[in-house]
Amino acid sequence: MAAEGWSERVRKLLKKMNSFHGAGSSKALCLPFMVAGQQVGYVPPAVAKCLHQYPTVFSVSQGDKASPRVELNKQLTSCDQRTAAVQRVLKELKAQQAFPCLKGWRDEMYNVMPYFCDTPFFSMERAATPLLGVKTYGAHLNGYTWRNDEMHMWLARRALNKPTYPGLLDNLAAGGISSELGVRETLIKECQEEACIPASLATLSKSVGTISYTYEGSDGGINPECQFVYDLELPEEFVPQVGDGEVQEFYLWSLDKVREAIGSSDFKPNCAMVALDFLIRHSYIQPDQGRPPQCQLCMVKVKIK
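Structure for Nudix hydrolase 20, chloroplastic-like isoform X1, as requested:
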């Protein structure tokens, strides 16, 4: 049997990262998660069944008499009230070891709102977001430089003690956006902590767009994510250094090598998508290149964004 081509491997990556909207997913079985009359997530069936136990916080409607949904109690009217009520439930579920994702509890709060620019309805523990299928946000940096007039990209390899995707390739710096920080604040913080990029250099990074996708985790959770993407041209003499221990080492690779890594299992999936976006934007991948033509990948990418 012929070896699987790069284009096919990348198409499988993109399909996997948007699996929730694909054929055979649990989407049709999930219940909309509503707050103040607006949908902010999707609740998997097993989670909805569990939330029946907490009627003062969650109202679970199923059957013919009402539109199926999980709704946060309307008597919880302020952000603080909602945050406290949801946190109590999540801590109880954690103590019960009710869902695998809660083993990764981080004591890090994420805002929940219909759209990123909206006022948050409430905040919740990061590790629990797949239970309610709420969208989470992050900031990712493509760091690049030049060697002999050829563009190269800096990549990180995640530490082996990371709770998720240990040992896999990552973007130069990246992190989730917690409830206390904005997008650029998060980026600068991660640059300093993970790669020892000084703030004076990190602030030169350019916002270049977002990538969005929704996948089903192996634990049954729903993961809608949006990553804010930045590019930063680094001086030739700059070499990132390991900072907070979340990275074990850094590599400076040619774009040929980055391209091959994107189509492998050695790359954290969403970070591979960020790197792929970089290659397309910088015209390294052309629509009519390859067999089959790379335009097929561009079309798939547009559907995912």
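The two ends are 33 Å apart (CA to CA).
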